[in-house]
Write a structure and sequence with these properties.
Radius of gyration: 18 Å
CATH topology: Helix Hairpins
Number of strands: 0
Number of helices: 4
Mean pLDDT: 92
Distance between the termini: 46 Å
Number of domains: 1
């Protein structure tokens, strides 16, 4: 069990680093300057918020891929598509249950679900902060 906790902790550190990089890119997008007419300004706001959402989605996708790759490396799931699907369903806490990890590694799924909840909360906070900054200059 200790090995599983160590692996999960390492993966959480990796996903935190990925999310941090996504957040830093999002901050650059948010801080980009508004220029031009009111119409162009509105489009700029829309594109910047959309950019933040896409960046945080891509960060989450990268994190899911890290978990999926780990499952393959541990022989907990065979095949990248299955591993990616399982990881996405677990990370989002959807949890269909149609694909399961090898019994020796199933505890990792619980850690991935917790990791996903934390990262989605963080992503939500980043998007809300971006909206506040862009539309309300806070």
């Amino acid at each position: 069990m200790l090995l599983k906790i160590i692996i999960a902790s390492f993966l959480m550190m990796v996903t935190t680093a990925i999310h941090t990089e996504g957040m830093l890119l999002a901050i650059r997008v948010v801080r980009s300057q508004d220029v031009g007419s009111v119409q162009r300004l509105r489009r700029s706001h829309l594109y910047r918020i959309g950019g933040v959402v896409i960046l945080m989605f891509l960060a989450s996708l990268a994190e899911v891929i890290v978990w999926a790759t780990t499952y393959i490396a541990l022989n907990a799931i065979h095949g990248f598509e299955k591993a990616l699907y399982f990881s996405m369903v677990t990370y989002t806490t959807l949890g269909y249950g149609d694909i399961l990890l090898d019994e020796r590694w199933r505890l990792l799924a619980s850690f991935e679900a917790v990791n996903g909840v934390i990262m989605f909360g963080w992503s939500t906070a980043i998007v809300i902060a971006a909206v506040q900054h862009i539309y309300f200059k806070k």
